[in-house]
Amino acid sequence: MKLTRSTVLLSFVLLVLSIASLFIGVIDLTPAQLLSGDFTQLQILLVSRLPRLLAILCTGVGMSVAGLMMQQLCSNKFVSPTTGATISSAQLGILLALLFMPNSTLWGRALFAFTFAILGTWVFVWFIQRIQFKDVVMVPLVGIMFGNVIGGITSYLAYQFEMTQALSSWLVGHFSLVIKGRYEIVWITLPLVVLAFIFANHFNIVGLGKDFSHNLGVPYNLILFMGLTIAAMITASIVVVVGAISYIGLIVPNIVSMFKGDKIRGTLVDTALFGAIFVLVCDMIGRVVIYPYELPIELIIGILGSVIFIGLLLYRLQHGRKAIRFGAPSTHCCAMPIQKEGEPQL
After folding, report:
1. Which of 35, 89, 176, 269 has the least CB density, counted as fewest CB within 10 Å?
2. What pTM, to 2 d.p., does this model score?
């Protein structure tokens, strides 16, 4: 019942905020005019406001679930599409698509983004598997450095071939250009999230280590790279449409796991709902703070996310994976067991 209450509460909050967001914008929409059949109002709703809302929800759900999967598979709470070089790799793929296929469609650029996001994420995991001494901070630092290297290559190629302005749309995340007909790629996140839920128990087992996985008959490498591929494809589909948005996959799973533990199947739904709420609130703030102009959502999330990230870093360094419990201690705590000294960790 405790799990059900939190899910119902998050669903209700998301529903209320979603309805409210449809009526926030430069052009005023009113329920009365929509119900009266005003053609202009209906066109604005169907062509702009509703696609934007759906893109926001898919972004929040997808990035949060991608971050949750990467953290579980790598057994590190500070791994995410941002600190795992996934976003940087997707941006490099988009740039190469613009260079070699200048007339490519959005789906053609998405194919390049999928390929390079998957390769970049795999290379990152290959790196951290070979680090002998690592702690909770070392792994994301390696990912940040690797991502900066890829970002440097991307910037150099963009400057060399005078593509800086064309690439700028994918360097800063925003929803201002989301309209009907050019956002549908983000729907890919929904079946991928469902797939992540189906294999949630396998991801939990893989997160406990290679030996533990083999003892339970779970193919470690196959599940590991399948999970990373799902996370990379979710991230790439969002980067192609919206651009780079940091921190979502990092802070949302951490906040939810602080209250509900680390088991993916028990936290995935709440993580997806809370991620959608977080992105939606940040987008609404960006639309009203300097109305009638709009701030990119990357700026809002960057400010809030950096503050939250520092708080999470201090909490994790002091308490580790310990969850916050209200009232009497639960007898079915789903936090992962503490790793013993000497055991391999990603």
Report:
1. 35
2. 0.83
